[in-house]
Design brief:
The complex is a heterodimer. Chain A is an all-beta fold. Chain A is 0% helix and 57% strand. Chain A is built from no helices and eleven strands. Helices cover 0% and strands 56% of the residues of chain B. Classes of the chains: A mainly beta, B mainly beta.
């Protein structure tokens, strides 16, 4: 079957760096997405990786290793507003998104 | 209006009621989706419409009935629901095919409570 694994919850301190990992096993691969979802709001797109390596976008970076079925989202200079759930999703061979359960990130002052 | 809108934002219904959820996208996309989001579970894809044609129905019970009258509007008709159907229902849209990014844009969701 298809499976996306990511930690359920993480805690970090304001101003610090946190890395949220995602491992996947899917039928085919057409890219990996990271979304941010604040409580009670819609998921919003953060990043898309289809080739191996690191994609940097401001304070957020996303890494992909297709051979290892692994990705991470790196958040730098954490701010209180970064408290949210972070969803990892993989697009399979049918171009359907397979979603992880999300990682709830708690930022402490 | 911009992006993807959904109405109502909150809905409480009894098990014998009939109600409908509405979604509208203002992005010119060609694909629309219904998802169910329950606490601490992955997003569950329910239905996919591509160019108004239903392309996916992931074994969703018949008490959920989708309707896509055009590429901008999507409905989810609900009847005789069960308490376990209580969840956040999210609508999304994307541009698929050649030149499309497949990135999905989500509406704010409808929080459904079945009593």
């Amino acid at each position: 079957g298809q499976n996306i694994d990511q930690p359920t919850e993480m805690t970090a301190t304001e101003g610090a760096i946190v890395q949220i990992n995602c491992t996947y096993q899917t039928s085919g691969f057409n890219g990996l997405f990271w979304y941010q979802q604040h409580a009670g709001e819609a998921p919003t797109f953060l990043s898309y990786n289809v080739l191996d390596g690191l994609e940097e976008k401001g304070r957020f970076s996303s890494f992909l290793s297709r051979s290892k079925g692994y990705s991470y989202l790196l958040l730098k200079e954490l701010q209180m507003k970064d408290s949210a759930s972070y969803l990892c999703a993989v697009m399979d061979s049918n171009y359907q998104l397979i979603w992880g359960a999300g990682t709830k990130l708690i930022i402490k002052p | 209006e911009t992006g993807v809108t959904q109405t109502p934002r909150h809905l409480v219904m009894g098990m014998t009621n009939k109600k409908s959820l509405k979604c509208e996208q203002h992005l010119g996309h060609n694909a629309m989706y219904w998802y169910k989001q329950s606490a601490k579970k992955p997003l569950e894809l329910m239905f996919v419409y591509n160019f108004k044609e239903q392309t996916e129905n992931n074994s969703v019970p018949s008490r959920f009935s989708p309707e896509c009258p055009n590429s901008s509007h999507l409905f989810l008709h609900l009847h005789t629901l069960q308490p376990e159907d209580s969840a956040l229902y999210l609508c999304a849209s994307s541009q698929e095919g050649t030149g499309g990014s497949y990135e999905q844009y989500f509406g704010p969701g409808t929080r459904l409570t079945v009593t």
